[in-house]
Design brief:
The complex is a heterodimer. Chain A has a single domain, classed as Amidase signature (AS) domain (Amidase signature (AS) enzymes, Alpha-Beta Complex). Chain A is 36% helix and 12% strand. In chain A, strands 1-3-2-4-6-5-10-11-9-7-8 form an 11-stranded mixed sheet, sandwiched between helices. In chain A, helix 9 crosses helix 12. Chain A is globular and about 65 Å long. The mean pLDDT of chain A is 96. Chain B has 3 domains: 296 residues, no CATH class; 113 residues, no CATH class; 58 residues, Arc Repressor Mutant, subunit A. In chain B, helix 3 links the parallel strand 12 and strand 13. Chain B is α+β, with helices and mostly antiparallel strands. Helices cover 39% and strands 19% of the residues of chain B. In chain B, the strands form 4 sheets. In chain B, strands 1, 2, 6, 7, 10, 11, 12, 13 and 14 form a 9-stranded mixed sheet that branches. A 3-stranded antiparallel sheet of chain B has the order 5-4-15, with no helix packed on it. Chain B has a two-stranded antiparallel sheet with strand order 3-16. Classes of the chains: A alpha/beta, B alpha+beta. At the A-B interface, helix 9 of A face loops of B.
Chain lengths: 484, 488
Amino acid sequence: MSDLSNYTLVDLVEGIKNKNFTSEEVTKSFIKNSEVSDKLNTFITKSFDQALVSAKNFDKKSKPNGLLGGIPIAVKDMFCTKDVKTTAGSKILNNFVPTYESTVTNKLWSEGAFLLGKLNCDEFAMGSSNETSFFGNVTNPFGDKIVPGGSSGGSASALAANLTPASIGTDTGGSIRQPASFTGTVGLKPTYGRCSRWGIVAFASSLDQAGPLTKTVEDCALLLQAMSGYDPKDSTSVNIKVNDFSSNLTEKVKDLTIGIPKEYRVENMPTEIDKLWKKGIDFLKDAGVVIKDISLPHTMYALPTYYIVAPAEASSNLARYDGVKYGHRSKGNNLIEMYENTRSEGFGDEVKRRILIGTYVLSSGYYDAYYLKAQKVRKLIKEDFDKAFNNVDAILTPSTPSSAFKMGEKKDDPVSMYLNDIFTVPVNLAGLPAISIPSGYDKNNLPLGLQLIGRPFDEQMILNLSLALQRRMNFKRNIKAWWK
Amino acid sequence: MSEKKFDYFIKGEKNKWEVIIGLEVHAQVLSKSKLFSSSSTKFGAEPNTQVSLVDSALPGMLPVINQFCIEQSIKTGLGLKAKINRHSVFDRKNYFYADLPQGYQISQYKNPIVGEGEVILDMPYGTKKIAIERLHLEQDAGKSIHDMDPENTFVDLNRSGIALMEIVSKPDLRSPEEVNAYVKKLRSIMRYLATCDGNMQEGSLRADVNVSVRRVGEKKYGTRCEIKNVNSIKFMQMAIEHEAKRQVKLLEDGKAVDQETRLFDIKKNITKSMRLKEEAHDYRYFPDPDLLPLEIDKSLIDKLKKTLPELPDEKKDRFIKNYNISAYEANILVSEKEISDYYEEVIKHADKKLAANWIMGDLFAVLNRKNLSIKRSPVSAKNLSILINLISSGEISGRIAKEVFEIMIEKNDNPKEIVKSKGLRQQSDPKELEKIITEILTKNKDKVAQYRNGKEKLFGFFVGQVMKSSGGRANPKLVNEILKSKLK
């Protein structure tokens, strides 16, 4: 039998359903890869034994069912998993074992999947290189000392290295799409409100959204379908029908109109990325799509707006990690000292930086100048997109302004690190769905992605366009398993 | 009616000072579950047994608004004749404390659910309108327990997340008496509406009291101090009195009042500084991104309007108009819904004025003595109405009625049966009475002579003797008539 870990998610589901192979065989193939993957440092917690038990139980069932029947899946360690340690990549939750299961992972399990392990990520999902994790850097399988992107770096890396057939991440400012782009995988951030946030460790509540990371667009449609849906436990989730994304997936995109925003043509962008963008445009034209130049005039304000809104919410969301109830607690002679010691020792530098920024922008006397103004700009950014979508069906941009960089390269320069999210952040501010699909390589043989942005709740449209692109791109993940 | 004049002023050594008071009342919403979770709100449970994942702020937990609490606060707003804001927003009030699991309290800051309203007070010097500035919904915190262990503080999260309505008055109150009337009226309105049980012992009703003073005649408000978390009307009154005097002393000594938060020390009867304005928290309020703004349908407000019961003010007007009782009496009878219900039950079949007298007099005395609410009155409304009818029809005298009432307290028997079995029926036969009277006058010839010589005070003596000899049963009206004619 060929190596099952090379299969797509769709093929694995089909193969298990048709009894071509068993869930146990599938699970073993991924465990086998994972066991020799320590150099990549993708796993924070391995649940291999339990996964094997689940696989065997699945194989015993007379009537296996579910969209993901018999599939082991490793998930980003931002999702709370019942009885399995959940850290958010932070020391402060180093010992935290939830008694509950997040809605999104629960949906996967109820479709027949089971947990393979918990994947490394930037601490509290704050980072673009997976270098802020308390559990160490994750390495990109495309090269030693290359970052996988972040914050869902563990998810992207594990997927690209065939350690999991698919994964889920969270995307607050690009945390799914950017690592997908850096690892040659498909990553989709759904519309805000499409997936429940219940049970996901919160970073910035008005921006956070869970989404799939997969090898193909078909896999993406399937996983998105399994994880989407209204949840009464999340007041911001939206009660809207979930498409059968897989059945409706089609390459027929003729006569759709795609917008090309001029503001995304940033200075100093590598020519390869510009070329790739043009290639994407040509492929879409080939599929019968009409291309239209558009303007999203407030794009340049997106990054500063994001770096006010996200830290503001984070500073409040992370107040609960105080050593009183759960997680890490340091000693102190009184309550204040205990707080100070716990949070000083429990949080890493990037998290502290964002808590400080967030606290500052919400402070009395600064609120109007920063937070309130950022909210106003956020509205303008959203209106840019609303206007654009009067004339186009989707928008095509590069996913990132560069390919994956070297570890340590941007670690001491937060602003240059933040600039990596310049194409992904506006989408979160506007609450729109967007997908990154692998589209080619740069001169260093590192993958690059293109991003398609869609109308609210029209994930189907960007999936269909992605499918049309995917076939024409004919992208191959050229990875040698050097880490074994 | 002679109206008293308002006369609460602090007399300093140099000036007379007016006291300005505003209240922030925290009223626990009467609701089975908490504001953002389904945990029980029952009072008195074992510590940390009514705590959900949301209440303890575990990672990834999200608040979901309890629709019933929204309706309760709309109802309360309507009861305060206030504007209901169709659009309101939940904000996060950020601060660290061990019994605040989220590290923030979900509250309403710029856009509360209820806007301006009013509460009418009946004071001895007339009615007074107290303006309400706003009512907003917020979560309660947990409870820190400092005295269970010398080293550690314990935290009980049963209260964490319970819905509170913060009702903010304008600085319209001028005396501890008005504060007393205001809190009681507010409580009465909420009890009528069943939106807050008003139980101060259980912490369902607490207040932050803002106090400032100014020289009589001055227009500008002085600097205020806020006395935090006072949980009884008596303590509020004591705290105000003390705080006003403290401020007067400062000002008359040429010093300034610092704007600060103070705590009332019950044992020492003083207020103590808790934190100065400069030390005040920066709460960094911002809209809670986990909750959508609250949009209230007009149809919901209209629906709730229709369910509103008759409130104390309307009931009072009706009582005065329909039952011919005084404003003073009406006020007391409507102060609690249960009292007004009891009264209206009694007067279905009995005299309205007598009923008011009996309830406010004898019945209240018994309830007070036995420390009972009217709901648990030992005398049923039905039996009291029978008793009153026995008086009205002349079957028993008021004095005998009191005797019968004492027996009713113990047994709640039908007063008719008591009168019958004890032979207490009033002696109203003129012939019988004449016989007794003649006998007494014969026995006391000297006093009759004195009376006739002008010592008219002796009339009472004769009445007394007749009553005594009839065992109190003689009809006093008849006795009077017969005595008068015989003594001519």
